[in-house]
Every structure is written in structure tokens, then in C-alpha cells.
């Protein structure tokens, strides 16, 4: 008898932006306490809506969360991570041009940090390869 184990957890597809300014500072924001991974710092973004593509979700989420309009983006890394209660697929993009002044439009704290300062913040476990890729690209 062959037993095939199928992971019953749905995969959550998330568009994530690593927003970078002219001085190579990166924008991070703090997740509200009531959310999954609450209290940790993140790169802004969120789940794709039905029938939305990654670029569309990235633009929508950064407008909703930070009130900026994405002008230019480029792929950085794709990370799949199993949290046990859910599996996330983080589709991570550099955002190197945008219109507007980013602020925490949903009441969340946001900060511009240097690549050296990234290590001072606690990110969700899935973010380890993202932070590593950012460090590698900017060092
Ligand atoms: N945006 C973002 N999500 C991350 C990061 N790292 C990480 O594990 N995640 C996880 C946390 C969540 O389970 C999921 C993203 O969900 P989200 O809460 O941002 O989604 P959303 O903005 O669409 O929120 P909502 O409207 O459903 O409340 O991905 C990250 O750096 N940025
Ligand atoms: Mg979000």
C-alpha cells in the first residue's frame, strides 16, 4: 500500500516590498499585536486577493499600508516557510522608486533603517533569508 501524505495547509501567497531610498536605507514596519507574527518587524506587504497578481497586490498593499505609489520594483527573493499553522510563500520585491512619503497608514510604527541596523530588529522566522539577501546585495 502506498500512502501519500498531502499537506492540508493552504499556502498563503504574500507580496512583500523591500523599500529602499537613495541612501540605501530600508523601510520596516511593526506588525500589530493581534496579527499573525504580531509585535515583530516586517517588510510591508500582504496577501494576494483572488485573481490579483503579485505586482497588483504589492501596489495595493503599499498604498493601503504606507500611502505610497510604487513606481519601480524588481524581484529580490521568493521564500516558502512552514509556520506549522500555515505555510507562507513570500514573493519579495525591491521597491526603489515610489511616489509619496511613506507613513504608517494603519497606525503601525514604521522606521527607515540602515542594512547594519536590520540585525537589531526581530522579524518573523520566514524573513531570515530575506534579510540575508538584502545584506548580500548591499554590502
Ligand atoms: N507583509 C509581510 N508578511 C510577512 C512577512 N514575513 C512573514 O512571515 N509574513 C507573513 C505574516 C502573515 O502570515 C503573512 C502576511 O499577511 P499580512 O497580515 O501582511 O496580510 P495582509 O496585509 O493582507 O493583512 P490582512 O488584510 O489579511 O489583515 O505573511 C513580511 O516581512 N512582510
Ligand atoms: Mg500586511
Automatic annotation (TrEMBL):
<dbReference type="InterPro" id="IPR029119">
    <property type="entry name" value="MutY_C"/>
</dbReference>
<comment type="similarity">
    <text>Belongs to the Nudix hydrolase family.</text>
</comment>
<dbReference type="Pfam" id="PF14815">
    <property type="entry name" value="NUDIX_4"/>
</dbReference>
<feature type="domain" description="Nudix hydrolase">
    <location>
        <begin position="11"/>
        <end position="138"/>
    </location>
</feature>
<dbReference type="InterPro" id="IPR000086">
    <property type="entry name" value="NUDIX_hydrolase_dom"/>
</dbReference>
<keyword id="KW-0227">DNA damage</keyword>
<keyword id="KW-0234">DNA repair</keyword>
<dbReference type="InterPro" id="IPR015797">
    <property type="entry name" value="NUDIX_hydrolase-like_dom_sf"/>
</dbReference>
<keyword id="KW-0235">DNA replication</keyword>
<keyword id="KW-0479">Metal-binding</keyword>
<protein>
    <recommendedName>
        <fullName>8-oxo-dGTP diphosphatase</fullName>
        <ecNumber>3.6.1.55</ecNumber>
    </recommendedName>
</protein>
<keyword id="KW-0460">Magnesium</keyword>
<dbReference type="InterPro" id="IPR047127">
    <property type="entry name" value="MutT-like"/>
</dbReference>
<dbReference type="InterPro" id="IPR003561">
    <property type="entry name" value="Mutator_MutT"/>
</dbReference>
<keyword id="KW-0378">Hydrolase</keyword>
<keyword id="KW-0515">Mutator protein</keyword>
Amino acid at each position: 500500500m502506498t500512502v501519500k501524505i498531502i499537506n492540508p495547509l493552504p499556502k498563503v501567497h504574500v507580496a512583500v516590498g523591500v523599500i529602499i531610498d537613495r541612501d540605501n536605507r530600508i523601510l520596516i514596519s511593526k506588525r500589530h499585536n493581534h496579527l499573525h507574527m504580531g509585535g515583530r518587524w516586517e517588510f510591508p506587504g500582504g496577501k494576494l486577493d483572488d485573481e490579483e497578481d503579485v505586482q497588483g497586490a504589492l501596489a495595493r498593499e503599499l498604498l493601503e499600508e504606507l500611502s505610497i505609489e510604487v513606481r519601480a520594483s524588481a524581484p529580490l527573493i521568493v521564500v516558502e516557510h512552514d509556520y506549522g499553522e500555515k505555510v507562507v510563500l513570500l514573493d519579495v520585491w525591491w521597491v526603489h522608486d515610489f511616489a509619496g512619503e511613506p507613513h504608517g497608514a494603519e497606525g503601525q510604527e514604521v522606521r527607515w533603517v540602515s542594512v547594519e541596523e536590520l540585525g537589531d530588529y526581530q522579524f518573523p522566522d520566514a524573513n531570515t533569508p530575506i534579510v540575508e539577501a538584502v545584506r548580500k546585495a548591499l554590502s
